[in-house]
Write the structure tokens for this entry.
Amino acid sequence: MTNLSSIGRKAKELDEMHISERVRIERSSLKKVLVALFFYGFMMLFFSVFI
Amino acid sequence: MELFVIIILLAFIFESMDSMAGMGFGTALTPILFLFGFSSLQIVPTILISEAITGLIDSFFDHEFKNIEYSFHPLNAATKVSLIMAIFGCAAIFSSIIIGYLAIRFPDTLIEIYVAILVIFMGFSGFLRIIVNKKESSKPRIGLIIGFSALAGFNKGIGGGGYGPVITMGQIFSGIYEKSATAMVSFAESLVSIVGIFTFFLISYAGVTIDLVLLPSLFTGGFFASIIAPYIVRIFPNKVWKLFIPVYAFTIGLLLLFKVLF
């Protein structure tokens, strides 16, 4: 088993930052949210056909 | 395809709580859906399918919002621990099928009371742990993680439920950072749900009819929760989750006990 202490290291580092840092979302993350919304639309289309 | 607004709202609330506290989606939502008059063949498969998809989305955004870090090549510690938990969860599903197949009867009420008391005890211990031990978590212990995973799997396997509360609190007792513990449980639960879905497909081949009427509503509520909840976990400091998780586990335990006794 690798180093278990590494679990949550980034979360701890982020917790030590100011809330303004934690609230801010990177542009790449926003793009992934948009891709997820597209996936949601696809799934609902799938359900409307098969359910 | 039919969408039920109340089911969407409930799925959103309980998937958010499940994502933030690592427990409660199935435990809290199932009895409510029964109260609405849906049958177990309408509820259980749809919860499993919804939980499998939204759990993976939730895990993706937990990683994206830095509540946890996964790596598959090579496997890092977080991924390995999640897989260990998932293996015990899958073993629990198989054992419950075998137990059902062999028609071995355990006294249901006794098992459910045992699991409810265990969850209440773990929630209370987690709360006491904050009051007594103010310092940060010690180094995580793999032996304890495996032990609690086995205990959670055993409880689920004999039909007592409570997989989420036991495995989440177990990780925290083992020294895992709270934010990361709930993230890993979401990932493990989504893998376990995939195995559960296969089980239902198998029984549907045996002639049992599965009704997926609830799926679009459960998926809609769960989907938006699985993006928003990891972001909320990111924003609030860990000390909030340190308190929130045991209190919610205690509440879930009381709910389980209430369900058995009344």
